[in-house]
Amino acid sequence: MSYQFSDELISILERSGWSSMRKVRTNQYASDWKRDGYKVFQQALDFSASFGEIRLAHPAYAGSAFDESYFDPSAATRRLDRAWVIEDYEGLAMEQLIPVGQGYSGHLNYLIGDRGGFYGGYDDYFCRIGKTVEEAIEKILLGKNFERLPGL
User: Fold this and answer.
1) For the chain, which end, N or C, has fewer CB atoms within 10 Å of the first or last residue's CB respectively?
2) Residue 73 covered by a domain
């Protein structure tokens, strides 16, 4: 999958070790997802191949401090109760979801949808970060607002 980012975002991403040609092995991620009961889909594999093990520094959710997001799908899968995903988040997103990372001091779980949406969940808080990976990465890195999805 080839993502299309602005020059500003590419510069920030490259300082974090990302490149447009990056492709890490996703076998372990897929195995962990399957073991936890997730149906593996291409969007999750593509994102994980490009962003797996990438750590991004970005503005904190509130205030002027910095925080970070870490895209380790295996760790995110272990730390997230799948019941939240199935019983609550997927109904709000209206697409199947797979965990791909965590951000904001490890509190916000990142999930990608089978139709390409990118989401964040923390207990009874759920938001769409972007309708695409590109939109989500821009919002995370530049500290833009996420769209809270009501219903929890």
Assistant:
1) N
2) yes
DSSP state of 64: S
Say whether pTM exceeds 0.85.
Answer: yes
- Residue labelled with tokens 């994102």: 47
The count of other CB atoms within 10 Å of the CB of residue 133 is 23
Give a yes or no: residue 2 inside a domain.
no
Q: How many domains does the chain have?
A: 1
Structural domain contains residue 117: yes
> pLDDT per residue over 30-87, tens digit each?
999 999 999 999 999 999 999 999 999 999 877 678 899 999 999 999 999 999 999 9
Helical pair 133-142 and 7-15, crossing angle rounded to 10 deg? 70
Contact 93/117 with Cβ under 8 angstroms? Answer: yes
